[in-house]
Known about the structure:
Blueprint: E1 2-7, E2 10-13, E3 18-26, E4 31-39, E5 45-52, E6 59-60, E7 68-73, E8 78-83, E9 92-100, E10 108-109, E11 113-118
Parallel strand pairs: 2-11
Antiparallel strand pairs: 1-3, 3-8, 4-5, 4-9, 5-6, 7-8, 9-10, 9-11
Amino acid sequence: QVQLVESGGGLVQAGGSLxxxxxxxxxxxxxxxxxxxxxxxxxxxxxVARTTWRISSPYYADSVNGRFIISRDSxxxxxxxxMNSLKPEDTAVYYCTxxxxxxxxxxxxxxxxxxxxxx
Length: 119
């Protein structure tokens, strides 16, 4: 089992920045990938960014590429999402999720953290 807890959300003006954190606990040695998804009201949950856990290998959705930076600190069992040049359309609940070694798909999810960008 892996437990994920997000933090760092909040209200920010357009053009501003926020940094989200995702603290992992439990069987962290079994993690293959960690990713961020987001869900805006009335919309489906969308992929934002992901990285492999042991060797950083970031990948971004087109909508955030060049503005967001995903990183991880294996020693602290924490993943981060630095969000810059925020836009109102970035408003959503942001979720951290983990894919486990030997299994496909994201099996573990955090509770989410709200990000609101005002215009």
